Amino acid sequence: MRAKGVILFVIAIAMASVSVPCSADDAAAPAKLSAMDQLVAKLPPDLGVAARKWLHDSDKDLKALTAFSGGDLEREVMQAMASEPDAAQFVIGRLPLETPETIAVVLKVVAFDSFWVDESGITEALDKLAKSTADEDLMLSYMESERVLSVKRIRESLTERIAAALKAGDTKEYEKLAKADERWLMVQRGAMLPSFVRKPVPLFTVKDTSKPVRIVGMGDFGQGSAGQKAVAAEIVKMGAAAPYDFGVTFGDNFYPTGMNGIDDPRWRDWWENLYGPLKVPFYPTMGNHEYYGDDGAAAELAYKSPTWIFPSPYYTYLAGPVQFFAIDTTEISEAQAIWLDKAIAASTARWKVVYGHHPIFAPEHTKKSGRYMEYMQARLWPIIRGRVDAYLCGHQHAMAQMEPREGVHFFMSGGGGGALSKVSRKVDGTLFAESNFGFLTLDADAVKMTIAIFDTDGKTYASEVITK
Prior knowledge:
Layout: H1 2-16, H2 24-28, H3 35-42, H4 45-54, H5 59-65, H6 70-81, H7 88-94, H8 100-112, H9 122-132, H10 136-168, H11 171-189, H12 195-198, E1 204-207, E2 213-218, H13 226-241, E3 246-249, H14 266-275, E4 282-283, H15 296-302, E5 315-319, E6 322-326, H16 334-346, E7 351-355, H17 372-379, H18 381-384, E8 390-393, E9 399-405, E10 408-413, E11 430-434, E12 439-444, E13 448-454, E14 460-467
Parallel strand pairs: 1-5, 2-3, 3-4, 6-7, 7-8, 8-10
Antiparallel strand pairs: 2-12, 5-6, 9-10, 9-11, 12-13, 13-14
Helix pairs in contact: 3-4, 3-5, 6-8, 8-10, 9-10, 10-11, 11-16
């Protein structure tokens, strides 16, 4: 920084010796502030200094942040800095000065980003904050974050043992440890799911495998919003004209934290009343929001209805010429990875379709917002690449189609009713992307499989006929 200052000083002296004519308006015009300068000017002094030092967002993203003001800006900056390892100690030290809303979003990052597990003193800091706050809800939030990080550390040891067993070719030990990891994963999530509930049900058949099949699918929908109702109405209308055999969901079925129980009134208002008129069953998957509350995932598994069949967090079934693999992508346990690999290998179906919540490839508008894809590309992609025909998902609240890779076709239907997300059509491999509400359909027979994306007016956004 010192060398840079000397250079600027020399340039200033040189320019002072040159006579440059200028207008009175030019002389009076203030210097144009950079996006970072504008951001810092709006923040409390200590947070502004920290942002200048540690915030590494692009100029475009910084410019977007400057549109916020007051508490909203502070929350956005603190959330962004919580993803910067070098800023970790500052972020934790500043939490007592923040609003409960800001603390909540920061703690979500702390529980998610892997570097926090090894951050020095983080567990002690969270424990101290939990004991010192007068806010009972904040106390519980601090405790939850402390629990997640502690269990993650325990699972690191288990992960090392699993890797060693796999390397040594000890299948018995590998599968035993993978089963144990499944239980520790539930402890980490706090999802209150016993081990036997996590066990996938055996392969079952929904429709005669010699018959064609037609399904509808949507994700990220359960808000009771106008968007959800518009999507549901068009699904019902289209289903009346060309009936579906069944439906699937791509997770985040109910906001903000899944259902509170099997008697939650949202089952009636946000599910049965909207999709019940189809008179077909849906086969759901979990999203990350199902795990934001203690009972959300358990309630969705326990609910029984002719319209809602959720036999286990991950499962597979036959329908016409298609074998569907419904997976839980919030974190793909070793046990689930083993199961999926074996289930795909054993399948003799004409078409193989995997569906879950998180995309492997998507038109995310920033690298940070799409960080989960790094995990999906490392964890799920090696299992399905070149082995299945399609991967269907949600999570990004938008509709998209990505170009096929190694025989796998990618469709995203996350516009089921949740607040819409930004998309970037410039992301490599994007064939179609629209920040809008909608759903998809899949039709398959022995010759072809057609997947199409629709808006709330029944207009076809994108479609593809797949043959082989």
